[in-house]
Amino acid sequence: HAEDELSRSSHSNPGKSLVNGIKANLASNSPKSNLPVPMGPPVYVDLAYIPNHCSGKNTDLEFFKRVRASYYVVSGNDAANGEPSRAVLDALLEGKSQWGENLQVTLIPTHDTEVTREWYQQTHEKQQELNIMVLASSSTVVMQDESFPACKIEF
């Protein structure tokens, strides 16, 4: 039954039943698939938002091996949920060390958190080796009754 459904789905909506070029298992209720993701060339982008507020639930070393960005945005600000995750920040260092090229990378945290401060201080030497710069901004944007930190990015 699931195969008939998959066949109909792919004819009426091509590509909809594919996950990274592999047929999706429609019978699975699991949010994460156990299907192997085929290796391919890395993707180079100017700006990448680290998924799920930099939580280790969806982002790991493979993300940083495959998604090579000039700028990564880290938006996590919820220590109780592990956001941002120290493991994800460490995965950035490990992934970047495997690129084989010394491209400049800028990490843009949108919140000043204990995790990012400790990571920055403890890995600063490694960041310099890998040509990773972490932006910190003392600029503040004030709009109506709200104020928040800001930084400017130029491409």
TrEMBL record:
InterPro entries with a match to the protein in the record: MAP1 (IPR026074)
Example GO molecular function: microtubule binding
Top-rank taxon, per record: Eukaryota
GO biological process terms, semicolon-separated: axonogenesis; dendrite development; microtubule cytoskeleton organization; regulation of microtubule depolymerization
An example Gene Ontology CC term for this record: neuronal cell body
Record region (Disordered): 1-21
Name recorded for this polypeptide: MAP1A protein
Gene source species: Ramphastos sulfuratus
